[in-house]
Amino acid sequence: MPTRRSILRHGATVAGLLALTGLFPHPGRADQAAAFEASELDAVLAALGSRTPIESPLLALSGPDFTDNGASVPLGVSSSLADISMLLILVEKNPTALVALFRPGRGVAANFTVRAKLVESSEVYAVAITADGAAYFARKPVQVTQGACGT
């Protein structure tokens, strides 16, 4: 039968492991649900507690210039910035702007790809938020065509 002391000791160990991996719940952490529901880029960043981002050559966004299928657009984001706590992919003219949110841990290369739905031709943004709260962005226009006609 486990004793109260052993339960507390194991609970502290589990809490420590969760804290180290970043999975421990933080009461002051930004509201990710509100970020995924926001339709404006500024509202997404505000929901995540981010500062106004500045453009950075250390952040790269890849994707096609033109696509005939807006339902599945391959996008990639990579960065050589230090201490990235979040990487975001945002689409300006989508009903909900936030397409993807990545939380790379220590020792994980900040290099991710995703397939996103673009409702119409739009600017796509990659935003990197560092551990100190600084935010950086890169952008790329993606033209969605229907039957070889731009929309």
Task: Tell me what you see in this structure.
This protein is of the alpha+beta class. It has a single domain, classed as SoxY domain (Immunoglobulin-like, Sandwich), CATH 2.60.40.2470. Helices cover 21% and strands 38% of the residues. It is built from three helices and ten strands, in the order H-H-H-E-E-E-E-E-E-E-E-E-E. The strands form two sheets. Strands 1, 3, 5, 6, 8, 9 and 10 form a seven-stranded mixed sheet that branches. The protein has a three-stranded antiparallel sheet with strand order 2-4-7, with no helix packed on it. It starts with a helix and ends with a strand.
Sketch the major β-sheet. Answer: 7 strands, mixed
Q: Which secondary-structure class do the elements indicate?
A: alpha+beta
Q: Specify the number of helices.
A: 3
Mean pLDDT comes to 81
CATH topology: Immunoglobulin-like
Question: What are its keywords?
Answer:
21% helix, 10 strands, 151 residues, alpha+beta, Immunoglobulin-like
What's the topology here?
Elements: H1 4-21, H2 32-37, H3 41-47, E1 54-55, E2 59-62, E3 66-67, E4 73-79, E5 84-91, E6 98-102, E7 111-116, E8 122-130, E9 135-146, E10 149-150
Short description:
This protein is an alpha+beta fold and 151 residues long. 21% of the residues lie in helices and 38% in strands.
